[in-house]
């Protein structure tokens, strides 16, 4: 197994771009909400990245698959947080749509990755 193989994965690179968008969004939040709401949003988006990286270092596809599941869960959490911010007028419809498209793409990539892992183990 290649060391630090996640650095070459497109899904990892796309997650980094999503994280950059999330940071920009959080910087625009009113100060009184930045810590509570912004911190949670940053943690969920960062969790997607970190679980992909951590899973890539595991010794089996089964373990990697478990970490990809955790990443998907964090991705859903990230979208829910952005949706709540949009509902409360902290995020524009355009910002939400841009993030949604990226999250949808990453979810598809993770799902495809999981299917590929499952098919190589059968």
List keywords for this structure.
122 residues, de novo design (two linked rop proteins), 4 helices, 81% helix
CATH superfamily: 23S rRNA-intervening sequence
Helical residue percent band: over 70%
Q: What's the number of structural domains? A: 1
The top level CATH class name? Mainly Alpha
Written description of the protein model:
The two termini are 20 Å apart. The protein is elongated, with a radius of gyration of 15 Å. It contains 4 helices and no strands. With 122 residues, it is an all-alpha fold. The model has no long low-confidence stretch (mean pLDDT 94). The protein has a single domain (9-120), classed as de novo design (two linked rop proteins).
Topology:
Layout: H1 10-27, H2 31-56, H3 61-87, H4 93-120
Helix pairs in contact: 1-2, 1-4, 2-3, 3-4
Quick overview:
The protein is mostly helical and about 120 residues long. The chain has 4 helices and no strands.
